Amino acid sequence: MKAWIDKYFSVIRMTWIQALEYKANAIVGTFAIFSGLAIEFLIWKQVFQAQELNEIRGFTFNGLMAYIFLCMIVGQLKSSWATSIEMIDSIRTGEMNKYLIRPISFFTYHFMMFIGHNSLFYIVYTTVLILFPILLPGYAFPTFIHIIGFIAALLISIYLSYSIYFCMVCFAFWFGEVRALVIAYNISNIVLSGQIIPLRLFPDSVRNIINLTPLQFLVDFPVSIATANLPMNLWIPKMGMALSWCIFMTLAGRLIYRSGIRVYGGYGA
Amino acid sequence: MVGMVLRYFSLWISFFNNSLTRDLEFKANFLGGLIVDIIFYGIQFFFFSIIYSYVDALGVFTREDVMIFLVITFLADTFYMFFFSGNLFNLNRWMVRGDLDYFLLRPVESQFMVSFRYVKSYALVSIVILLIMLTTLIIDYSKPIGFFNVLAFVFSFLMGTVLWYSVDFIISSSCFWFKNFSVSGWLSHEILKFSTRPDSIYTGILRKVLFSIVPMIFIASIPTRTLLYGPNIQYLLWQLFIAMIFLLFTRIIWKRGLLRYESASS
User: Is B183 in contact with A24 (Cβ distance < 8 A)?
Assistant: First the structure.
């Protein structure tokens, strides 16, 4: 176990050093969040002002902004589409041979790389989250339990999101080029997971469908905990459901990977 | 002058033929690109359908107007994809690997080569679909839209595309100064996000900035206003002026950037 931890921790450390060299990623990422928030702020301000609304489906204007702000941060932390594109390329070009002849797992190695690459984001966003109660007091993290719940839900979200991407990546064994699939999922995911509009504002028919998928656990679940929009008595059942989805997606990923590796030529597409 | 334009046009036709042949070799990718576009359009329509379930109009833009605005946004995006995205997105990589040498050695203006060499031919299908959609929406619009509006719209739209190209080109060219600016595409995307929402939501200083230094309002909002509410000469002249200024900037930045280029060692 110690050897396993040492092995993959060194992957995180290596990618962490690389990530530190590209600080521009964190700067652009932060700009992405604040520019996105500015646009959402202006749209919803007009909606609230034009209709003279005090709240929409339980969201006050400030409450909604706090929610969207957190959604954008969580959305960026869990998105591993860039790592997925690298994985697809390594299958397509035959570069993944190096994972087959070494005692490392293709899944875990890239997961650790993803965490390492994102490490700069974790530092920047943790700082932002610490400042959050000062910027918008009373709209998130009302108690310490909510911070713990948020972190737990965020970790689940990151793992679940990576597992879903991994399943899609494995289709590259058969089709060679599945970037379009990953990008299509990524685009739909931004809206359907509640990253720019809370799921609660969706029409009921659409929400009922989303509730049957793991999408609700990617962004909406951690943010609902942080903003106290989810009653505490629902945390454990929801976490159970989210973990079940994690197990399901991990098993599905393994199954697809094992079938895929049998058809893998190893010489590049 | 005419001879030069014809020469460059025939060169672009050759680029297009070559890109089409390459794209058709990867049919799955060709289809995938189309599917991604359709999903992107669907998601944007869905986003605004939720917004408009809570409001009747965003400023002057009613639900009906926003549908046209969205199609124009998609059209601007697809036009940009078709002509430029296969090139500017890769500029940083070409510079880092020294591949830019191949563009500089050709007996053609290098900015033309790096801007137009690869055409995303699959976008042509999306352009046709979007033009049909736009025509249908114009015909079904609650008020008649005159021919003069359409003519002014075409002018405004082309100026918007020039601006989009210029902004992206300037951001991409900054790799000459940063040595490796792999996130330039992401940064462009984030800035261009401001053009994908109706201009009526922007107020105060931000509105002034989006009308001048970061002229995102001119990409889709002003063409939409021109089409739906008739041409505003002041807006159109300002759009022309800003587009020319930005185009001039691309020339200056490109020439200065090339002086800093050190081939594969940079």
Answer: yes
